[in-house]
Each structure stands twice: as structure tokens, then as C-alpha cells.
Amino acid sequence: MHLRAEALILAVRQHGENGAIVRALTAAHGLQAGYVRGGRSRRIRPILQPANLVLGEWRARTDDQLAGLTLELIRSRAPLYAEPLPAAALEWVTALTATALPEAQPYPRVHGALSGVIGAIEAAPAARGWAVALARFELLVLAELGYGLESDDLPDILRTGGEADWADILAALRVTGLSLEADILTDRRHDTLAARARLIERLKRAVA
């Protein structure tokens, strides 16, 4: 197995004394896991920030073996983690994607939408500039995994787009959040739901 592709870092778990198991999303090959030797070192650890765009190279002797992974940083999102709201949003969208998607199955629409949400978080001067995109990303994940919501059940900003005030945005996030919790983020997904709860609480405080 040999794969070389651009990818978005989604999740990182320490492994052993120095290594890390990294899960990253590629456009054509879906979610891919790999072992990064020295992943806890000062040199490599900044590359493994969730939401970073990297060039990854996965190598394994068999398809059943966890691939060794080497990475080159293309774009760092580390500066966004200095701000509470962007940090919470990045933590949530990467955790959701890592938790919800099965490995090695391509979801190009999810990849494109995730790239778009991260780009919006990066570019927008305030949360209102990316919060609608985040709600639409949640809706897309549900649809791609077979849990699409009926159009009549959706707030206008999810059905027709356009401008929205904070009441509309929070209402949309309530709708998608209930479905995510009921259909995808069940039982063992407590940590992922906690990331979303932190984000929603920070959004509410920001607009209070």
C-alpha cells in the first residue's frame, strides 16, 4: 500500500513514547490513518494540528497493516487556535469528521465542504461569517451518511441559503445537532459531543 495525497489533519492520538496515530481526510481516498514516528517531537508536533493541510505519504506492506505516515506541512491553522471561537469551531468540525466517516471510503463532497468551512473560519473577521457554513456542513455530513433531513423540517437558512441573524443560525444548529446526536454521535461519542457543546456555548456567549 502506497498513497501520496494532500490531506486535512483530523485527529491525533499519542502512541508509545514518541509516536502518534494520525487520522487525516483526503479528497480521493477518504479517511486515512497512519503512524507518525516522532509525532510527539517539537519538530513534528506543530504539523499535526487538526485542520492543518498537509502532504501525506502512507506506506504499508499489506492493506491490513497500519501504514507508516510521513508529512509535509502545506498550510498551518495554528494561529486560529489562539482565538476561543475559531479554536472551538476547528476542534468540532475535525472531531465530527473523524468520528462520523468510515475509513478509506471517499467522500469528496465532505472533503470539499470541510475545506470550505475551515477556509471560512480562517478568513471571516467574526463568527457570523462562518457559522452558517458550519451548520450546512453538519447537514451535509448527515446527508452523505444517509440521514438527510426532510426539507420541510429545516430552517430557511438551511433550505434556501441567504443572510441570517443569530437566532436563525442557532435554530439551524439545534436542528442539525439533534440529528447528529440521535443518528451518528451515539454511545461512545461523548468526547465529540462535548466539543460541539463547547462551541455552541461560546457562540451563545459571543452573541448574548
Give a quick set of tags describing it:
208 residues; alpha+beta; 5-stranded mixed barrel; 6 helices; 5 strands; 43% helix; RecO; DNA recombination
Low-confidence stretches: none
> Strand order across the biggest sheet?
1-2-3-5-4
Tell me the β content. Answer: 15-25%
Q: Secondary-structure element sequence? A: EEEEEHHHHHH
- How many β strands by DSSP? 5
- Shape annotation: globular
Radius of gyration: 17 Å
Largest sheet: 5 strands, mixed, barrel
Number of helices: 6
Based on secondary structure, the structural category is alpha+beta
What does the average pLDDT come to? 92
Helicity, as a percent range: 40-55%
N-to-C CA distance: 51 Å
What report would you give on this structure?
- The chain is an alpha+beta fold and 208 residues long.
- Helix content is 43%, strand content 22%.
- The protein has six helices and five strands, in the order βββββαααααα.
- It has helices at residues 84-100, 108-123, 128-144, 156-159, 166-183, 190-207; strands at 2-15, 19-26, 30-36, 53-59, 67-75.
- Strands 1-2-3-5-4 form a five-stranded mixed beta barrel.
- Helix 1 runs antiparallel to helix 6 (190-207) and helix 5 (166-183) packs antiparallel against helix 6 (190-207).
- The protein is globular.
- The termini are far apart.
- Keywords: DNA damage, DNA recombination, DNA repair.
Q: What's a concise summary of this model?
A:
By secondary structure, the protein is an alpha+beta fold.
